[in-house]
Amino acid sequence: MYDAPTQASKLDQTDIKITANNVQVYYGDTHAIKDVSVDIVDRAVTAFIGPSGCGKSTFLRCLNRMNDTIDICRVEGQIKIDGEDIYDRRIDPVQLRAKVGMVFQKPNPFPKSIYDNVAYGPKIHGMTRNKAELDEVVETALRGAALWDEVKDRLHTPGTGLSGGQQQRLCIARAVATKPEVLLMDEPCSALDPIATAQVEDLIESLKEQFSVVIVTHSMQQAARISQKTAFFHLGNLVEYDDTNTIFTNPSDPRTESYITGRIG
Amino acid sequence: MPVIWLVLIVLALGAGGYVLGRSRALGSAGGDSRKLHSLPNYYGSNVAIKTLVPSFLVLAIWLIAQPIFVSSQISGQLPDGIVPEGSSVGLVMAEVRRTADGIGALVANGTMSADMAASAQVDPVDLTARLQEAGQVVTSAITQPILQAAQSYRAMNATGGMAMTALVLLIALGGLVYGLRETAPQFRARNVVEGSVRVLLIAAASLAILTTIGIVLSLLFNTVEFFRIYPASDFFGSLTWSPSFQGNSQLGIWPLLWGTLYISIIALTVAVPIGLFAAIYLSEYASKAVRSTAKPLLEILAGIPTIVYGLFALLTVGPMLMRVFGDEGIGWMQSGTAVMTAGLVMGIMLIPFVSSLSDDIINAVPQAMRDGSLGLGATKSETIRQVVLPAALPGIVGAILLAASRAIGETMIVVLGAGAAARLSMNPFDAMTTVTAKIVSQLTGDSDFASPEALVAFALGMTLFVITLGLNVFALYIVRKYREQYE
Fold first, then answer.
1. Contacts of residue B487 in chain A, CB cutoff 8 Å?
2. Chain A contacts of B372, Cβ < 8 Å?
3. Is residue B276 scored above 90 in pLDDT?
4. Chain B contact set for A175 (CB, 8 A)
5. Which regions of chain A does DSSP assign to beta strands (E)?
6. Distance between CA A163 and CA A247 in Å, rounded?
7. Domain containing A240 — which CATH number?
8. pLDDT, position B280
9. Looking at the domain assignment, is residue A96 inside a domain?
10. Which whole-number Å values give the CA distances from B344 to A7, B31, B266, B313, B357, in the listed order?
11. Cα angle value A229/A234/A240 (rounded, 5°)
């Protein structure tokens, strides 16, 4: 579909959005993330790959403090977004999550109409002054998620009535509507068929013009197609983090090579 | 032979059939259970089922049919004119049965030989004396026709019992042999056993439904009977409830219905917010430790017998309200038993219904919904209000309507807490009464079941049934409507 991007090396390395330093995550006694440090670039797609249970989703959920909702989870180390430590006491995780949107593995539209699904974020954050503005935000978000043409005549029918791929794009529109700076995607295509996957990938490609997109994926082809940077996780360690091109053509760590050639994981 | 022995013998046959069937199946496969279609136990069960089910069915039908048949035969044999003035065939038959039982007891303890019991020469006077001596209940002197009837009653029952024993044993043995003959490696014993299990399940389900239909029909017939002697227009049109057993009763349902609804409304006003908030706390905010202690504690409330709540209303809540709203306080309340007393206590009773059901329903909302909302930067309470509760709404409405049905049908709290005066009043501190409480008071004591004052209970019961049925149908409608919208 897409060739491995060639412009990755041209990225301005100073344009760093997220910096993680020596992040450790524990679930009870289990040490799930071991000493991960990574810099995530703005206006680009960063892919996290690795075998199941390697901690890539856990690390992703650290970036918007979704792990706070799990009682036994404990995060150590430092994660900065735009130079601000997100685990600082003064940071309100609720505000942070408005800034760092998230799309989940399974489409999870709310049991509301399509319109209300997209308007949910703008409404709770009071982002619009009146109905007309809200309508505009909803339309922009749905257009941004390449869903507008399919749903514009039935905005007030339940979002749960859409097909799986449409639901996932609705969830992306929902996340986009709150105007986040970073968009986290946890295997957004794993529940979708190839056509819906292609649509979502197109969408991610266009989203990276506006935000920094971090995507967890099990599909190495997908990582190769859409990302500029790739991080390979294994057993809670960040094994290798580099330009996608480099990772897939000339990995420096033997484990990375084994994984991308299908020998481990 | 007593029926219990027959049952035990048939059960033993069944157990034997199980063992035989199992070993025969294994034997037919040369001891290698892999060659059988089903596991050996299934062959055993098949034989046991074939032995037990038909014989027990015949036994049950026979046990039901024989007394009916014998009674109709005997009452046909009774000479004309034996039924005294002002009595009925039923009373005479009861005496025949008592006499027969008495003779049976005499034979059993050896004071009378079996031959003598059956002979026509027995002197009724002597027999009466003997029976009274043996402590048997005999109302009056036994007459010759009654004695004869009792003797033929005994004879027919004995013949019937013999025939039943023989038939049941024959069927059991026949089933056993048939089941054993079926047993072969190719025989699909497993499917047969599964089929029988299904029949058992269907039987259980239809029994429940048939019982319900029976209850409704008995209510319905008595209600029709009531409306034949008391005009329905008065029942549904009159605003007065003043039954009097001298006749001239005013039996208007409205004061009772109003009491029921008023108390239920107060109860739900108490129970729904408290129960719902408790459920939200328990399912969304409480830690595991709190939840695992608090939820069972809350559910203990549901296990308290309602009469205890009634005492609580009468002895604690009523006097407490009196202190505030009674003559010493604001002066709205005349006595401790009032709509408010019963409503408050009933509300407390309903809290666990609402909270426990709502808690389960809220827990059933997928975590993905909460994650989705939290991931958009919503706070926990925004998530609960705007995502979790709407998703759980159909179930919560169902829980509330269930609680409403309970409130409408509740009796003991009302009897003790609300007073007995049927009146139409807006003051929640007045004593009122409900449909259920009046059903109790109309049917307790010496009531003549042909009078409208007693039969009205069935009409009241029918009205309640229709209301709760309507509520349940409405609940189903709501649930379905929202489900269409949400799923």
1. 111, 160
2. 104, 108-110, 171, 174
3. yes
4. 375-376
5. 16-27, 30-41, 45-49, 73-81, 84-85, 100-103, 182-186, 212-216, 229-234, 237-243
6. 35
7. 3.40.50.300
8. 94
9. yes
10. 72, 70, 7, 8, 20
11. 35
**pLDDT value of position B373:** 92
- Residue B305 and residue B444 in one domain: yes
Instruction: Judge whether A112 is closer than 8 Å to chain B, CB to CB.
Output: yes
Mean pLDDT score, B270-274? 95
Q: Name the DSSP letter for residue B434.
A: -
Q: Does B178 touch chain A (CB under 8 A)?
A: no
| Residue ranges of chain A whose pLDDT lies below 70 | 1-14, 264-265
Q: Which two tokens stand for residue B373?
A: 């909302």
**Both B182 and B240 in a single domain?**
no
Q: Does A77 touch chain B (CB under 8 A)?
A: no
The DSSP output letter for B421 is -
Q: Residue B484: pLDDT band by 50, 70, 90 thresholds?
A: low
Cβ–Cβ pairs < 8 A, chains A and B: 78
Residue B201 is assigned to a structural domain of this protein: no
Q: What is the dihedral of CA B130, B133, B136, B137, to 10 degrees?
A: 100
A125·B391 Cβ contact <8 A: no
A253 located within any domain: yes
Query: What CA–CA distance (Å, rounded) separates B482 from B487?
Result: 8
Length of chain A counted residue by residue:
265
| In contact, A32 and A236? CB cutoff 8 Å | yes
Neighbours of A233 (CB within 10 A): 27
pLDDT at B139: 61
Determine the 3-state secondary structure of A233 from DSSP.
strand
Structural domain boundaries, residue B421 = 235-486
Q: Residue A99: its chain B contacts at CB < 8 A?
A: 377
- Domain-located, residue B470: yes
- Which of B376, B383, B388, B487 is the mutation pick for testing A, counting most A CBs within 10 A? B376
Please give the tally of structural domains in chain A.
1
Minimal-distance CA residue of chain A relative to B372 = A108
Parent domain of A81? 15-260
Q: Is B289 on the interface with A (CB under 8 A)?
A: no
For residue B81, name the pLDDT band (cuts at 50, 70, 90): low
% of chain B exceeding 70 in pLDDT: 93
Which residue among B375, B391, B487 places its CB closest to the CB of A102?
Answer: B375
Residue B112 pLDDT more than 90?
no
Q: Which helix (H) or strand (E) holds A200?
A: helix A194-207
Distance from CA of A258 to the nearest CA of B (A): 34
**What mean pLDDT, rounded, does chain B reach?**
86
Q: How many domains does chain B have?
A: 2
Cβ within 8 Å, pair A104-B287: no
Residue B373 with chain A: CB contacts under 8 Å: 110, 120
What digits encode the pLDDT tens for the residues B295-332? 888 888 888 999 999 999 999 998 889 888 887 778 78
Q: Which of residues 26-65 of A touch B (CB under 8 A)?
A: 64
- Taking the Cβ of residue B372 and every Cβ of chain A, the question of whether any pair is shorter than 8 Å is answered with yes
Q: Can you name the residues that pair with A238 across neighbouring β-strands?
A: A233
* ipTM of the predicted assembly exceeds 0.90: no
